[in-house]
Design goal:
The complex is a heterodimer. By secondary structure, chain A is an alpha/beta fold. Chain A contains twelve helices and four strands. Chain A has two domains: 85 residues, Transcription Regulator spoIIAA (2-Layer Sandwich); 236 residues, no CATH class. Chain B has a domain of 62 residues. Chain B contains ten helices and ten strands. In chain B, the strands form two sheets. Chain B has a six-stranded mixed sheet. The longest helix of chain B has 18 residues. Classes of the chains: A alpha/beta, B alpha/beta.
Chain lengths: 369, 265
């Protein structure tokens, strides 16, 4: 079996006979189509009698010679003729490229689309918040409607399973703050204030904020993905048809467990960060644990802890809501689940940080310095 | 087209596939001849898709030998097996089109992979006639898979499977999820392509109409192996409970009646 296609030509007063031999297939087509373009002749005859094997690409080349150059085809056997006929029949003006949109128009339309999406999300979230409050109202009036098992399951998934990673992360962050703080404060001979730095930043801000980011990544995304695939699978429609409110059955347990667990996780994270910082102070700055704990109690006011415990449930609600809302927005295909999950996490973290800034200003104003 | 060659295109001997404790195939033998449309049927969970995945090398069998075009496929080096892979095309159940590419670009992916030197003009021409051949609308080439209906997706999948002019075509439930009109048209397309391009077709299906309309031979998977191979008439003559239930159940009878009426008309 020869893999090459050879073709010989003899040109006589504008009449060219192309005699192909061997395989007329996609393998040889690139060179061939270049060579064929170079041929200048008024009349072309294509002789296929010595072709061993031809595929549709070969047939397409022959068809093009026939269509564009008016070539006559001779020597094709039955199968080859069938193939050429088939390709000829398939030669239709087919649109292959998307319509061209000028960059300016594209940017403007994208900007418009984003604005609409943003406003839509804002409105949707507000509506979702209302629907959620109503669901909680229903549950409050009919406590039996609370899916206690679902809430407990979410407790485990959102809280217990997160303990290790949240604890480890906070512990390490505590060490890093202590170490970096000590290096800077040493320049002023104020190493001892490392304790203040650790205690106040961990309890007031970092514990809750880092936990919120971790919970958004772990649970907010999980909520969006779970509800999104349920939506795709028409499970949520099925629920509504049966008469079960998805708000009560799916959203309420998730929001409730996140709201209740965020303060616990946040407190745990703060304590782990203090522990990490304390160990660093002990080993590296020679501050014994007893002194460290005593100093922490002196420098960290209770209001720091109150702040953290007030912020945590709010953050939890925002994260859970963003996750559930985005999950419910899934439509169409599986790709959407991924997109919505990403959006849920980004939105959750963004809103948490914006709100944290407001909280900081507010607490300072009321004198919780 | 090497239609004079009578050696089997696909040859499976002693295939054994297990997933943990569960044995899917045990001592499965199968032969697909050149130029035929070979149907594979079997109840749910009898390993039809696993069989196809084993043949095309997506599933490593525990035991057995698989030859495609007479060349052993198991334990082959990836690069070495490439020239065999080039000679087959696969249509997956959900068409498996690349969702970030347009239909035309989907069709060009295999060509670009195997023949990187081919210029864009020729690539576009090839994509255009493949699109027409697969019976897609003329504006389908510029569309993304998400903009296509189920039937159109399958046609685009076939266009991609045909992009390298394969000799062997694997189809996994090509008519599932299509309405009866679309399914019949798809059967017709497979038949036409087989005749025009000299294809051998390996077809997994549940569709009794497809079996009656286009399959030359049918293999029945049950009890972890191929229990019978033959034309529908040959299978009907066998005394096997599942085969009798399958072809002589209410749906099987309807499909058979439709087929004979179609032949009379």
């Amino acid at each position: 079996m020869s893999v090459t296609t050879e073709f010989s030509r003899n040109v006589e007063d504008g009449h060219c006979v192309l005699r192909f031999s061997g395989n007329l297939t996609i393998l040889r087509v690139r060179k061939l189509s270049e060579q064929l373009n170079e041929i200048e002749a008024d009349r072309i005859t294509v002789d296929l009698s010595e072709v061993e094997r031809m595929d549709t690409v070969g047939a397409w080349l022959v068809h093009k010679l026939e269509r564009d150059r008016g070539a006559t085809i001779v020597g094709a056997n039955r199968e080859q003729q069938l193939l050429i006929d088939h390709v000829t029949a398939a030669d239709q003006p087919v649109k292959l490229k998307r319509d061209y949109v000028p960059p300016f128009t594209r940017v403007v339309s994208q900007l418009g689309a984003w604005t609409l999406t943003f406003l839509g999300t804002l409105k949707g979230m507000l509506g979702f918040f209302g629907a959620m409050l109503m669901a909680f109202g229903q549950i409050f009036r009919h406590p039996r409607r609370l899916r206690i098992n679902a809430v407990l399951t979410q407790f485990e998934v959102v809280g217990v399973h997160a303990l290790f990673i949240v604890g480890l992360m906070s512990f390490l962050v505590g060490i890093v703050i202590a170490q970096q703080g000590a290096v800077q404060l040493r320049q002023f001979g104020a190493e001892v204030f490392t304790v203040n730095l650790i205690g106040r930043s961990a309890v007031k801000e970092l514990g809750v904020l880092m936990t919120a980011i971790m919970v958004a990544g772990r649970s907010g995304s999980a909520f969006a993905a779970q509800l999104g695939s349920m939506k795709l699978n028409e499970e949520i429609d099925a629920m509504r048809t049966i008469g079960v409110s998805p708000m009560e059955a799916l959203v309420a347990p998730r929001v409730l467990s996140t709201v209740l667990l965020m303060p616990l996780l946040g407190f745990f994270a703060a304590m782990m960060a203090v522990l990490g910082g304390g160990i660093f102070c002990w080993l590296s700055l020679d501050i014994p644990p007893v002194t460290f704990v005593q100093r922490i109690r002196e420098v960290v006011p209770m209001t720091d802890l109150y702040q953290a415990l007030i912020k945590a449930p709010v953050f939890g609600m925002i994260i859970a809501m963003a996750g559930c809302y985005q999950g419910f927005q899934v439509e169409g295909n599986a790709e959407e689940v991924g997109l919505r999950t990403t959006t849920a996490v980004v939105q959750g973290i963004f809103m948490v940080i914006v709100l944290d800034a407001f909280f900081a200003v507010f607490f300072t104003e009321i004198g919780w310095l | 087209m090497r239609s004079d060659d009578k050696s089997p295109v696909v040859q499976v001997t002693g295939l054994r596939n297990c997933f943990g404790e569960q044995i899917v195939h045990d001592g499965l033998d199968l032969e697909v001849r050149r130029g035929e449309i070979f149907g594979v049927v079997g109840g749910s969970g009898t390993g039809k898709s696993v069989l196809m995945r084993s043949i095309i090398g997506l599933q490593m069998p525990d035991e057995g030998e698989i030859k495609v075009f007479g060349e052993p496929m198991i334990g082959r080096d990836k690069e070495e097996a490439k020239h065999v892979r080039r000679r087959w095309g696969v249509l997956f159940q959900g068409a498996a089109l690349f969702s970030t590419l347009t239909v035309a670009e989907n069709i060009q992916v295999p060509i670009k992979e195997y023949y990187p030197g081919i210029g864009q003009v020729l690539l576009d021409e090839i994509a255009a006639y493949k699109i027409s051949m697969a019976g897609l609308a003329v504006d389908a080439g510029a569309k993304f898979p998400s903009e296509l209906s189920g039937g159109m997706k399958k046609r685009a999948g076939i266009a991609r499977a045909l992009s390298l002019d394969p000799e062997l075509l694997f189809l996994d439930e090509p008519t599932s999820g299509l309405d009866p009109i679309g399914a019949a048209a798809f059967d017709q397309l497979i038949l036409e392509l087989r005749d025009a391009l000299g294809l051998t077709v390996f077809l997994i299906t549940h569709d009794l109409d497809t079996l009656y309309a286009i399959c030359d031979r049918i293999a029945v998977l049950a009890d972890r192996k191929v229990v019978a191979v033959g034309t529908i008439e040959e299978l009907l003559a066998l005394d096997h409970q599942w085969i009798q239930d399958y072809f002589k159940g209410p749906r099987g009878r309807t499909a058979a009646r439709r087929e004979t009426e179609g032949a009379d008309a």
